TrEMBL record:
Key word Oxidoreductase present: yes
Record domain NADPH-dependent reductive aminase-like C-terminal: where: 163-288
Keyword flag Membrane: no
Name assigned to this protein: NAD(P)-binding domain-containing protein
6-phosphogluconate dehydrogenase NADP-binding domain sequence ranges: 8-158
Keywords: Oxidoreductase
Family recorded in the similarity comment: Belongs to the HIBADH-related family.
InterPro entries referenced in this protein's UniProt entry, alphabetically: 6PGD_dom2, 6PGDH_NADP-bd, HIBADH-related, HIBADH-related_NP60_sf, NAD(P)-bd_dom_sf, RedAm-like_C
Lineage: Bacteria, Bacillati, Actinomycetota, Actinomycetes, Pseudonocardiales
Length: 292
């Protein structure tokens, strides 16, 4: 006997909500959608989604309600007058925000009898539905487990813990990592590009280098947790000397050097704090909030 995939509601059919609802439809879920501008949901209706006339009707249609709108103001505005209908349902909020906003939302929606899970989609709309991409969740494990099958339709579901703020906190941390990495890659691309190397030639080499960088992260994570940075591979003093070569090469070719200048000054602050002979992991000491 094959089981019928459970019904799911998606509130918000912008670029991301459309991808989420589409992934659910692809897995055979009866999918109800609502969007402030109903016309934008029409392509989903043509794929088999049910269009609800109001947020309340959409919520009533499914035990699992997923929201993905612009921001928390949009979320509260959309749910105004319908929040009580969430009682007894799992409410998964994939709208981006802060950990503080997620915790406040938990207090608000739990007060109306909903199981509130906060989430962060670690991809853009074309990646939704791939097992390769993570969708981060935090909030009650029981609700996560109960709806795991439907959440799997969106990407690989990763539960971070009971605190609803964790998904947003990880999201911000991971986006910071992404922006730093991509800007570093673009700076390197501009550097080699100044002498005629196309991005498509540089990038496979850069990606291979990132695999080595991954191994540095694994090595340094335990040093960060222990608060000890033996400097038995490359010291911050050595890295400060090396970044001088990047600054010189980029300046010679007329590139913007704001990123490496920032990195150098951060390493120099670590050296001034007594970490010149530490491994690069010692930089964490000047990034953390000072303990009073
Ligand atoms: N797109 C992405 O790659 C990222 C990936 C990571 C997560 N984000 C977050 O997802 C949220 C939605 O982003 P989006 O890309 O879907 O954004 P839009 O295509 O602009 O759609 C916005 C939807 O929000 C609705 N909306 C806006 N204001 C209101 C309101 N006051 N009341 C009700 N709904 C509202 C909008 O409706 P409409 O304009 O079509 O009527 C769309 O459904 C976001 O948090 C990202 O950070 C996406």
């Amino acid at each position: 006997m094959t089981s019928v995939p459970p019904s799911v509601t998606v509130l918000g059919t912008g670029a991301m909500g459309t991808a989420l609802a589409g992934a659910l439809l692809d897995r055979g879920h009866r999918t109800t959608v609502w969007n402030r501008t109903a016309a934008k949901a029409q392509p989903l209706v043509e794929r088999g989604a049910l269009l609800a006339p109001t947020p309340g009707a959409a919520i009533a249609a499914s035990p699992l309600v997923i929201a993905c709108v612009l921001d928390y103001d949009a979320l509260y505005s959309a749910l105004d007058g319908s929040t009580d209908l969430l009682a007894g349902r799992a409410f998964v909020n994939l709208t981006s925000g802060s950990a503080e906003q997620a915790r406040a939302a938990r207090d608000r929606f739990d007060g109306h009898g909903a199981d509130y899970l906060d989430g962060a989609i670690m991809t853009t709309p074309p990646g939704v539905g791939s097992r390769e991409v993570m969708v981060l969740y935090s909030g009650p494990r029981t609700a996560f487990d109960a709806h795991h099958a439907a959440l799997e339709a969106l990407g690989d579901p990763v539960h971070l813990g009971e605190d609803p703020g964790l998904a947003a906190l990880y999201d911000s941390a991971l986006l910071g990592l992404m922006w730093s990495t991509m800007t570093g890659w673009l700076h390197g691309t501009a550097l080699v590009g100044a002498e005629g190397t196309p991005a498509t030639a540089f990038t496979p080499v850069a990606i291979r280098w990132l695999a080595t960088v991954n191994s540095f992260l694994t090595r340094y994570a335990s040093q960060v947790d222990a608060g000890r940075y033996p400097g038995d591979d490359a010291t911050i003093d050595v890295q400060i000397a090396a970044i001088g070569h990047l600054l010189h090469a980029a300046a010679e070719r007329g590139l913007d050097n704001a990123l490496p200048e920032l990195l150098k000054s951060t390493m120099e602050r670590a050296r001034a704090a007594g970490h010149g002979s530490s491994s690069f992991a010692g930089v964490i000491e000047v990034l953390r909030a000072e303990v009073a």
